[in-house]
Structure formats: structure tokens, C-alpha cells
Amino acid sequence: MKPTALITGSAKRIGNAIARHLAEQGWNIAIHYHSSVLSAARLKNDLSSKNPDGKFELISADLNDLNAVEEIVPTVIKEFGTLDLIVNNASIFNKKSLKETTIDFFDAQMQVNFKAPMLLTQVYSRLQEGGLIINLLDTRVTGNQSDYAAYSLSKKLLWEFTKMAAVEYAPAFRINGIAPGATLPPADKDKQYLEKLALNTPMEKPTGVDPILKSIDYVINNEFLTGQLLFCDGGENLV
What we know:
The protein is α/β, with parallel strands linked by helices.
């Protein structure tokens, strides 16, 4: 029986790349999306065409709605029969300093970036006897830049939760984090934007998606790895 992975926010960008990568390795994929209907449908068609022996289903849910979040894992298990891996990839990344951050803005970032992964973990642990969770974090968890204050705080909290959950849910569940740096440019930026940012890192070049995929493979295949954070940031967390 093929293993099944749920990837939140898998219609576009990093989540899309992770879905394609795992499908190529023989995984069934639960493609979670919210508003990116066409991109999600396109991904499902591509995966089905390239991997005819796999099973690929669309899972629509608004991560701002905790009731909807609570139904994601049961829906996946009903569709696939099992769930072996959750990749908490979906996040919102909006710029505001601490001074500019309102409570409503903070709550919106926290809802998607932290509360949804936490709730998915809780539901998953109740419905499955064991499994694997990978939380997509950010190299910002090691720093104190406040330009994206609410986003950074939500990822810092998710990292602390990752360690705490790794202890509480062991040995049945392994829970780890991956922290990318400058991976893909924002929608309104180009490749040169990333290249300029990367000049301030030890490796002096954007990391791209490939190191994230390799890190996911490492987490999956290392059965004794739990509560750990792998940086895929070209050393950005060091400076």
C-alpha cells in the first residue's frame, strides 16, 4: 500500500514542489488548497498523468476556520484509508513591524501559521496510531528582525511547539521542522531580488527548492530524527 502525504497549501510554490517530489517517489498526495482552485486542479491532473498508479485528491479547507481545519485529517483518512505524513507548509507572510501590528493582524498570522498546524497535529494523533509531521518554519526563528513581526513570532512559536510535541507524541509520532531561507521570490519580485538578499548569506546564492526537498527526504528516512530543525538557508541563520 502506497504511503499518503497531506501537504497544506500544496497548490502553489514550495508546497507544489513538495507534492510533485513525493508523488515521484511513490506517495499518494492529499492536495490541500483554499482559494487556488485552478492551480490545485492543475496539480492533480499533472500528478495523475505522470504517476498513473498513484492516488491524488483535492482537499479544500480555509485554515482561518478552525472547524474546517479539524475536518481535514478525517477527510484524508476517509479518502485514502491512512495518513502517513503531514507537511505543514501553508503560511501567510505579510509585512508589518511591531509598532504597526494590530491584534487582528497578529491573530490572522497566528491562525494560519501556528494554530492550524497545532490543531492538525492534535487531530492526527487522535486518529492514527503513528506518523510523521514536518513543519515548514523559517530561518527567521533564530533572529529578532521585526519587519515581519507577526509572521516571525508565529514561526518561532511553531518551532517551540515542534519540540514540545516531539516529546509528548513520541514514540508513535516523529515531528521535525525545516527552515528555508530565500527560496522563491515574492509574487511582485524577480530572481534578482533573491540574488541580492543572498549576498548577505555565507553561501552568497539563493537556496531554491531543491535543498528543502532533500531535507524532507532526510527527515522521512531517518527514523530516529525527532524534535529537530534542519536549516536550508545557505547559512543565513548564522549571520
